[in-house]
Write a structure and sequence with these properties.
heterodimer; B: mainly alpha
């Protein structure tokens, strides 16, 4: 009956993943390998399915609630997919060990910087590209009132997305963390919009990989089906909670997860 | 005002597509998983060693054994995985219909890179 535990664990992963825009991979892979003793290749394949499920499961609600900025997502997806292709080409030529340590410390530093921000720090003016592409929008506040926001540093964010795509391919980690950081810190989007938009975007690149794993037969229905069912249920729940949770709380949860991931990265690079 | 309304309509259409897509795939996945779980509750512990079986082989075996639960799971997974890719295509189509050429070309570009990388065997 150990197999039954996969359902609540996946639900928790879907809940957290949809709330933070990260996908559920950081919970699913260790759970499957350490708790169930599943081979890492099956675990990675199931984790890709979990990212797709988190993304699609929560995206419907986030779009309807105007938390996802569709135009920003489409614009930034260009950087992510091109970056992922470049990362794939570079992966065989670059020794990623040092990168783990470097970016582990970078993420730890980013976590500390995020912790210092107590309130939303929106941009007051649009970048010219944001005007041209009409990237600015609004999202519902605590009482449902629309809160308008502007979009800053658009070209820089595109470059960061390119780097995020390269890094996630080189390091084998989901790029959700880099996406949320870039939208929050560079583009000055509200944290809820950053998380929801990242959640929307992560499904696209994960689906490309998931399809390849699926055709190869690494996606085993015995593992991936309960993971996906749990993740979908959890992500629906996460999407419902997102509109009610205060932005500052969301930021705090993100910082905790960011710190854990950064320490994991540094540890991986050190070994 | 008109463009804001157009984006909202577009977002709603994509939202409905994803919602129904996820519901349908979750239904097939849940039926498949429950059916298989009743027969083999600890199936998950049989994957400690990697032994590759292609998707085609899995489908052939399920068809030969008339394993509807396995087929249901596979169908659910196929639907789930294809959702984000169809979503990019749908976004491009809807932006074209709204004559939003910049965003339409961006969505087409993303769809193109995804398609090409898949056929080149690039694992994103």
């Amino acid at each position: 009956m150990l197999g039954l535990w996969i359902l609540p664990i996946s639900m928790a992963a879907g809940f957290l993943g949809s709330l933070l825009g990260l996908g559920g991979g950081i919970i699913i892979v260790p759970t499957l390998t350490l708790l169930f003793g599943v081979d890492i290749r099956y675990a990675i394949a199931a984790s890709l399915i979990s990212v797709v499920a988190t993304s699609s499961g929560a995206a419907a609600s986030y779009l309807k609630d105007h938390l996802t900025n569709l135009r920003v997502a489409v614009f930034l997806e260009m950087g992510t997919v091109v970056g992922a292709v470049i990362g794939f080409v570079l992966a065989s030529r670059i020794h990623a060990q040092a990168l783990f340590i470097l970016f582990g410390f970078f993420l730890l530093f980013s976590a500390l910087m995020m912790l210092r921000k107590r309130e939303e720090h929106g941009s007051v003016i649009n970048h010219p590209w944001a005007d041209k592409l009409r990237l600015d929008s609004s999202y519902p506040g605590p009482k449902g009132e629309p809160i308008a926001y502007k979009v800053a540093m658009v070209p820089f964010a595109l470059v960061v997305m390119l780097a995020a795509g390269i890094l996630s391919a080189l390091l084998g980690i989901g790029s959700g963390i880099f996406k949320v950081l870039a939208m929050d810190s560079a583009m000055k989007l509200p944290i809820k919009v950053s998380s929801a938009t990242s959640n929307f975007m992560i499904g696209v690149t994960a689906a490309g990989s998931a399809l390849a794993y699926f055709l190869r037969g690494d996606v085993r229905p015995e593992i991936a089906a309960p993971v996906a069912v749990g993740i979908i249920a959890g992500s629906f729940l996460g999407a419902k909670v997102m509109s009610r949770i205060p932005a500052v709380r969301l930021r705090q949860i993100f910082v905790v997860v960011l710190s854990i991931v950064s320490i994991q990265m540094i540890w991986k690079g050190w070994r | 005002m008109k463009s804001t309304l157009a984006v909202e309509t577009l977002e709603l259409k994509i939202s409905y597509f994803l919602r129904y897509g996820v519901f349908i795939s979750a239904f097939f996945l849940a039926v498949g998983w429950l059916g298989e779980f009743i027969h083999a509750p600890d199936a998950i512990s049989h994957f400690q060693v990697y032994s590759p079986v292609s998707l085609l082989q899995m489908i052939q075996t399920a068809l030969r054994e008339s394993d509807i639960f396995r087929l249901s799971s596979l169908l659910g997974l196929a639907l789930l995985v294809s959702l984000p890719i169809i979503r990019v295509f749908l976004t491009a189509y809807l932006f074209i219909r709204n004559r939003d050429w910049y965003l339409a070309s961006m969505a087409i570009f993303v769809f193109g890179v995804l398609t090409i990388s898949f056929f080149l065997g690039i694992d994103l």
